[in-house]
Amino acid sequence: MTIVTGKAEARRRLQPGWSGALRKIWEHRADYAYVLPAIVVMLIVIAYPIYYTVELSFFKTPPGLQLRDKSFIGFDNYTAILTSAVFWKVTWNTLIWTLGSTFIAFVLGFATALALHRDFIGRGVLRAILIIPWVISAVAASYIWKWIYHSDFGIIGAVLVGLGLADRPPNFIDNVSTVLPSLIVVNIWREFPFAMIMMMAGLQTVPDQLLRAARVDGASAWQRFWHVTFPHLRNVSVVTILLLAVANFNSFIIPWIMTGGGPSNASHIWITHIYELAFGRQRWGVASAYSVLLFLMLMTLGYFYVRALSGNDRKEGSA
Amino acid sequence: MTRITLGGAVLRGTVSTALVASLMSAPALGAAPVDLSKWSPEYVRSIAGTQDFDTAADCAKVTPLDYKGRLTFWYQGVFEGDPDLLRQYYKDFFETFRKTYPNIQLEDQALTYNDLLDKFRTALLGNAAPMAVRLQILGGTEFASKGYLQPLKPEDVGYSTEDFWPGAMKAVTWDGVTYGIPTNNETMAFIWNADIFKRAGLDPDKAPATWDDVIKYSKQIHDKLGIAGYGLVARKNAGNTPYRFMPQLWAYGGGVFDEATANPTYEQVELDSPQSKAALQASYDMYVRDKSVPVSALTNQQADNQPLFVAGQLGMMISHPSDYNVMLDLQAKATGADKEKAQTVIDNMRYGLIPTGPDGKRAVVFGGSNIHILKPEYVEGGKVDEPAAKAIICMWTSPEWSLKMAYAGSNPGNLNGFKTKWMKERLDSIKFLDVTTSMLPYGIPFPALPQSPEIMNIIVPDMLQNALTGAMTVDQAADDAAQKVKDLMGGL
Predict the structure, then answer these.
(1) Which range is the signal sequence, renumbered to this chain (chain B) (predicted)?
(2) Domain B189-365+451-489 falls in which CATH fold?
(3) Do B465 and A173 touch (CB under 8 A)?
């Protein structure tokens, strides 16, 4: 008589799975060999910095000392961040920046994609022109917009004053109330072509016969959009929004070049604030703690992005 | 080796017998230092062109000219606000160095004032710094105090400590040890457009005597002509902001600490003193109350003021003597009617002493740059080629090159530079140079503290921005800045 213990039973149950997984790995060993160099590089350039940043976030790094003279302070950096007024101000700015930029760039990109999906003369040229903001270097765009917005001699101000619509040029980026919306406009201008391209690609996948059938059935333009077109674009919309959100959370160039986070910290978002803390003020520990918090937020967005992508794969696989 | 132009000096008849005698007997590397107690534009003119120096021969005594080595070197180079003339001198310097030391493989990298500190700090964290670096005056003590720099004094490259401004030597000294050599030292002056003054009903040939006058003149120019009066700058992380605000702060009797006193201790924070608040109030009055300065001041730096000035849209500003050359460069690039307009501005450009405060105190930032050698453990590859580093340092801090590299915008770090023929040429060709050399005795160095870069580049501009945007009142902004300095000094 054979006595099977609980543990042995569990091991027996696991074995097929493990051996199956190992067998699969062995069968695909060439594929793994191909991606191995990339994994090694990623471990060096991504995993180690992440580890070091997390480690550093638990240390006090006084600006007057070298980094090696740091002292362990546990979660004090995190406590200091979460209880500081600047953190909440910068977080609020980051939320406005990210949500405002992402939502408007997406809507504008989507609307443009729908407009360009119709056949009309000059569509190709218009499409090429609209992509220009996206391909221009962010640094160059920031300098150009800085002059467009210039509070004394900007083009917008000159036009408004010239047309008699204003007595003096509007103050876009030297005013704490208007600076962030002004920067968001620049960001949207740069990003909406990306949303447009993504949504144009998505629109190619909407079956024409479905739209024709809906038209035959008497569906209005809105009904065709809402019941036929949009469901087909849901996944590409989610992916586009997530990619834009991640990019915006990570934005640096536009606010840094145009205002340096000012005036009076009114346009500081997380990344610019982290940069100033680390490289301007040498608070490496606090900056690392900020970075860890930002990393966790971005990982959360990344999780939804991967889920959205794998959802697409599953659907395509089952189709 | 020194060649003394005794005949020329006697012929000019401008140099005293005693000075000539001292020059005659002085070897190049131990030349009699300039007598700072006699400092005046006349004295500077009297010593200019009185001595010749053979830089290559002098530096050969430090590092043989056939020395074979490799040097990585970063420096604060020319940027958009500098004149083309200076660009040419930088080019000439590196060409000359490569010719003089053909076997030293030089890997040089120029960075702008605002980028250099960030990049250098980052490189140090990864032990990837260059072997030698030329930093702004603010940087010396920060890196010396952290132990990144090797002790380095003028004597190590063949010069004498007395050949350099005492104030400049303080900026490279930490805990009694010298860690660098000044390359150039500067003080700025007050610049105005006489035509704008005239049209605004002001005396075109008279600079505002006090900072209160600056406020009044700025308002009068703005109200009468509809243009900006004074070129206020308040951008954060830009060297231009402290260089223009600190003279105002000191003139009103304020300060970050007691840096404006003869023997500063840097113990008491003074940013929240009534005098400091009065200085901040002056900026507030111009920006908020009178709206007489550029609205873009919060994002501006001096390079943004220059086009405004040459376009005749700005009445007054603080800057280098080089701004005259910058205006000439800008005028040369202008076309059509703009060219003529720019010429009118240049013809009406005037330089004067920086105004005083209510108690007659005049002050200006004693600025400049220093050159340093890194410790091997912080350098890429873990090795420092000291002879190669000393070769370039000897050359840059020589009377010849410390003058040429500061030709239009600054003054030679090596005081013997004032004796060279190029100084004479400079006095003849650069208009208004006398004014900025006259400002040198009013120069106040930034506090020689490792925390100075953060105070000057972040806390002081933040204070200005908080007050000028209305995010805080003047009192609150000054108190907030003082608290930040106290926290910083307390290690927070």
Answers:
(1) 1-31
(2) D-Maltodextrin-Binding Protein; domain 2 (3.40.190)
(3) no
